[in-house]
Amino acid sequence: xxxxxxxxxxxxxxxxxxxxxxxxxxxxxxxxxxxxxxxxxxxxxxxxxxxxxxxxxxxxxxxxxxxxxxxxxxxxxxxxxxxxxxxxxxxxxxxxxxxxxxxxxxxxxxxxxxxxxxxxxxxxxxxxxxxxxxxxxxxxxxxxxxxxxxxxxxxxxxxxxxxxxxxxxxxxxxxxxxxxxxxxxxxxxxxxxxxxxxxxxxxxxxxxxxxxxxxxxxxxxxxxxxxxxxxxxxxxxxxxxxxxxxxxxx
Length: 250
Prior knowledge:
The chain is an all-alpha fold. 77% of the residues lie in helices and 2% in strands. It has nine helices and two strands. The protein has a two-stranded antiparallel ribbon with strand order 1-2. Keywords: Membrane, Transmembrane, Transmembrane helix.
């Protein structure tokens, strides 16, 4: 987990560095570090709000007139981070490989949240994130202290019902507001990690199946199809039909 979090954080910094090298000068009326961070967060599908009351939403990548290829930088960064973690933590279990890869995605995601707060790309979301941090920290400290003083009784167990309801409402509406802004970013971050983790897991499963062969993965794949060709055919036909239906036959 620690390796994944660290690798994900470094991947975010590497992507930011790549954007900083490509970014033109004096695009926004802001310090260079802040404007380049806005651009990189924009490449992660997070928009910037401007104006007296933050009523204008713009895409920093579009404003800076950066090439469309910059949207691939976050995907490449997360993919390499996930692959690095899966490569260094060897396990043949698909679930464990996906978990290891998602640890890198989590590190990337948490670093991006910190970057959102520091750069103030969405002031309203920054406020919500700060409130969440304060409430979360307060609950953790309160639970720890009260648990110690009351010999294990949870903090929420001695809190008033009104407090619990208030916190629940804040978490609900705050979470919905945050998700509405970062939903595309979640896909950019975690879709590659799941794909990489599953790929490593399947590859190592095939290698394990065909370990007695000179070409273990090919042999393992052959054994898999020999044992499960009917199920594979049915699944392939279903997805093929779904693809045709959704794309209109294109």
